[in-house]
Amino acid sequence: MPYTLAVVVPTPAHSNISGPLSYQSELPLAAGTLVRVPLGRREVLGIVWDEEAGAVQTGPEVVTKPIAGALDGIAPLVAGWRQLVTFAARYYQRGLGEVALAALPPQLRDLDGTQLARRLKRVTAADSPGTLSAPLPPNAEQAAALDAISASAAPFLLFGATGSGKTEVYLQGVQRMLQKDPRAQALVMVPEINLTPQLQERFVTRFGAGAVVAMNSGMTPAQRLKSWLAAHSGQARIVLGTRMAVFASMPRLGLIVVDEEHDPSYKQQEGARYSARDLAVYRGMIDGAAVVLGSATPSLESWHAADKGRYTRLSMAARASDAQDAAPPGFPAVRMVDMNLQPKRTVFSPQLLDAIAQRVSRGEQSLVFLNRRGYAPVLACSACDWKSDCPNCSAYRVFHKIDRTLRCHHCGFAERVPRACPSCGNVDIAPIGRGTEQIEEHLGELLRGVRQPGGEPARIARMDADTTRLKGALEEQLARVHAGDVDVLVGTQMVTKGHDFRRITLVAAVNPDSALFSSDFRAPERLFALLLQAAGRAGRDAVHAAASEMWVQTWHPGHPLFTSLRRHDYPGFAAQQLKEREQAGMPPFAFQALLRAEARTQEIAQAFLHAAKAQAETLPDAAAVAIYSAVPMGVQRVANVERAQMLVECATRAPLQRFLAAWQPVLHSLREKGLIRWAVDVDPLVI
Ligand code: ADP
Ligand code: ZN
Ligand code: ZN
Hints:
Bound molecules: adenosine-5'-diphosphate, zinc ion
Distance between the termini: 54 Å
CATH architecture of the largest domain: 3-Layer(aba) Sandwich
CATH topology of the largest domain: Rossmann fold
Shape: globular
Number of strands: 29
Oligomer: single chain
Number of helices: 18
């Protein structure tokens, strides 16, 4: 009598199979066992699942097939991992099979049991430990944080300015965990791949190369499998990775660190739109692992959770200044330039330019950022109203002077700049607005007479998505900055992220105002984080810290955001923002989900959303949620696809979750001709 198994298989995103399928096996197999099973005409990798996970789909039309084989060379995925995946699929409204199989390294699909066992052996015969660096004696705040982290698992919010010693707390937190249980494992997450190497270096020198594995999308399939096996088999003590690492199979997880927890990169923006930070908190709870969320500018969600006592706040050297209007000692002074007092069309105020020139002549470095790449965001005709629209998108094509192209940043459509206006033939077509390319060019002219200490002219470099497109280009440019071969670095916000620029003593935001009055309610939060993180880049070298400055050119110098910024006062900023959010009933005081639709026409996209709304009204919990009207997305058409969305909101999480679950089958059943795809985004970051 064969055994019946519930097996999770990789179902396509929009199939209506959301749970496991039934298969037969001659032998009983434990939940979590990897198996190969027939699915349609293919044979796929599946995972034996817990019976209680939901209705196994059987019926007169389904013949229960036998499994093709079990990958018994490797241990089953543990219950905690299965619970994490089940939760993620349910919470983010995706198929269990889609989430579960996407969480495994792709190469696992192609290997049989024997091959896997061989790979596993190679992992087990691990590397020898390298030189181990000694931990630094912790200061009082670090010691208090470490004591708290090793005493309980409750999520911690480690709030500390850049350079306050958070990473040292992560390192010693791992060390204490290993002292208690030498076989325990730690998961350390960073928002971006290019931040991995410098952190990996610190973990490797402390714990040895054999103890640490990386996990991110930049790795080859073979490397990913190797890391995964090292973590899954319990060989790797520390997994260091980007958001995908939250799903790493780690049977003895004792500590989870989410560094720069406020970073939007932790939210997946396609497929299952999960927040790795939020899943980390959930995972810590089910595995009994301590969770540490670290940031100098925490997300308002986490800050609010700490206010309410759901997270334990651990603060490190991040006190706001006692002075009304000045930075605390040891932090860069914030200099505001009131652009209302500058002549029209000023790009660089004389004060800022002078400050940069002084840096150059002293041999120090400056960082100038502007959130717009290209030369100018739009090209326009002075005679008619032609503008460089993209034919495929509801957006302008950006003028790139360097190769004289008009390029759409949404669909990639590029053409050479026309000699004359395509509409009226006028030859006087001109750029409007400024991007990094133009800032770089302009700064070059303005600093022409300025010399380095050795008498050489100032060296200006640009770093943005255009200059770092080629593999290795980013690393090469960063190396040039570190080597001191650049005096002024111009770039997009990319340059403000995590890089340890010790010799930069001036950081300038040339035109950050648009975020102050954005329709996106999270824009001020992101701007404040960006500016404070950027300020943290200046003067990390103690010798230069005293002379470091953060410059902000603005038309709104009295804005409360800048008042808080001048004092490096994140708590003050957060309190003010949270008050506004509470009054407006915005997250974290409300919970949101978006239903997004893409279609041939805007009418079709919206018709789908209207139908979804109409059918929602009869669902249980519908009374508890507010369903707003369907609206076109900010950039409504991309690559000739029309996009619309509809916001669903609720004061508490549970009814929203119940409503979304009940809504799923309804959404799957709607058939709108011309609809391309739809998706639900739970806790969306961009609305
Ligand atoms: P963060 O992660 O908050 O930016 P780091 O942990 O990287 O801060 O610390 C910043 C610098 O201070 C590093 O060079 C680190 O080696 C040093 N540091 C951290 N903690 C201590 C300590 N307790 N004693 C001496 N130096 C420390
Ligand atoms: Zn014209
Ligand atoms: Zn386009």
